[in-house]
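lol ok so funny story. i was supposed to be doing the assay writeup but got distracted and ended up predicting the structure for this chain instead. priorities right. anyway since i did it might as well share w the group, maybe its usefull for someone
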Amino acid sequence: MYRKILITTDGSAVSSKTACAGVQFAEQLGAEVLALFVAPEYQYPIYVEIIPPSYPSEDEYRAAMQRAGQEHTQDVVASCARRGVRCEAMTAFHESAALKIVDVAQQNGCDLIFIGSHGRSGWGQLLLGSVTNKVLHNSKIPVLVHRLIKEPGK
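and the output, tada:
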């Protein structure tokens, strides 16, 4: 059915729970996993004429985000290794996480995006914006939304 599943993570407890469910799903199907962390692009400080010395350079920022991406995808990679699921992890940079998720899935031959949802609706969803909804709207490949009924730790 599905051979390569993109699983996104942002390092939060919700995305960790989703990633666990995604790895189990991939194992059941015999699919491989691409674990993805999307970091925002580097932003130069605005409204200042001189960049403060304490402000990180673009190279420092990118290196820090690469390390964060490795930390955030580490659980997915470890879970895949325990279950015998082939896995690759990557960090990508873009201002719109949703658009980058869709782009990475297409560029890497994924045939399913496995993504989480907090289960918010109404004003909560409208005010916060939803990466999941944007992925659903923009993806041409199937998207499986794993909805958490309650927040982890509650």
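Residues 4-42+58-147 form a domain with the Rossmann fold fold (CATH 3.40.50.620). Helices lie at 13-29, 58-83, 97-107, 123-128, 131-138.
back to the writeup now i swear
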